[in-house]
Amino acid sequence: MAVVLSACGPEPLRPSAQTGVDLPLEHEHAPPHATTPGDRPAAVTAMLADRYPSLAYYPSVGASLAEALERRAPAIAILESLGETMAPYRWPSASDWDRGGFVDLDPAAPGFVTRTSAKSVSQSTERYDLGCAGGFLEGVRLLLAPRLGVAELDRCDADTFAIVGAPSRCDAEHDFGWLAIANIAATLTDPQLERGRALVELSPDDPLAQQRLAQPGATHLCSVSHTARTRANQRFHHHLMITLGGPDGLTVFDTTGTRGVAVETMSTERFVRYCGKLLASNREYHYDWRSARLTCLAVRTTAQVQ
């Protein structure tokens, strides 16, 4: 398979209206610093550790996250607590960030790893980097599939292609995010699938799509894609996020080099700009912001199906 980190690409940038120079996203929202105080650590019970095996490799588990998982809290509480748990261990900067970072459950290289060319290499001591796919995977594990493996995300087999709306080819370089969503759809149980084993393509500026994603109680796993001007306008599924609908609007959980593992409730205008222009800004690929698309799977979390 292709290198996993290509799916999440170089860190998104935004153009400066004053200078025309690309500026990192931290100019939009200041990222948490590596020494940001997090939630107080909690002892993880044997039952919780068995239910969520990736917790064993976290540098610590915040009390709010442990409590949310114990009571099978709503998704937003779990994801916000995950962000708080990871905040004290933020990488130093967007330029010093392991985009291929994951928590691997494979006994051959368990814990925080760098994933390249379908291989996992342990990260250096005291580094706890999660790439955009790695942060997304932790969110999916804590909400839906605790034992989902890193290698399962870009799997290409009959189960993958059986999903309605799945890619028709094995091309992780272009379609990693798309493959990941399709493979998760193949892995989940029927009660965890809000609309069956089917992916839907949405445009972030479509009012009907916005309404669908922001509907209270709605949870979607989404890949964000754009066409790349420097790659003959080929489409790349280069970012992954979880969206939650609620009374305050649309909440996005994702991971970037500047914002870290983050949860943000967005206005419609902010969401359109984030998916379109902010995630499209990239010095290497020069994504066309007008080509932004979301490929999403509607799910029911553990709290919703219990």
Numbering strands along the chain, what is their spatial order in the largest sheet? Answer: 6-11-7-8-9-10
Order of secondary-structure elements: EEHHHEEEHHHEHEEEEHEH
The backbone outline, from C-alpha atoms, is globular
Overall tally of domains: 1
* Structure class: alpha+beta
Q: What do the pLDDT scores average to? A: 87
Task: Let me know the number of strands.
Answer: 11
Calculate the terminal CA-CA distance, rounded to whole Å: 36 Å
| Contiguous runs where pLDDT drops below 50 for at least 5 residues | 1-7, 9-35
Beta strand %: 15-25%
Q: Roughly what percent helix?
A: 25-40%
Number of H/I helices: 9
Give the C-alpha Rg.
18 Å
Give your account of this protein's structure.
This protein has helices spanning 46-51, 63-70, 75-86, 132-143, 158-161, 172-187, 207-214, 268-280, 302-305, and strands at residues 13-15, 22-24, 101-104, 111-116, 119-122, 200-202, 219-228, 234-246, 249-256, 260-266, 293-299. The N and C termini lie far apart (36 Å). The strands form three sheets. A six-stranded antiparallel sheet has the order 6-11-7-8-9-10, sandwiched between helices. By secondary structure, the protein is α+β, with helices and mostly antiparallel strands. A hairpin with a 6-residue loop joins strand 3 and strand 4 (111-116). The chain has one domain. The longest helix is centred in the middle third of the chain and has 16 residues, at 172-187.
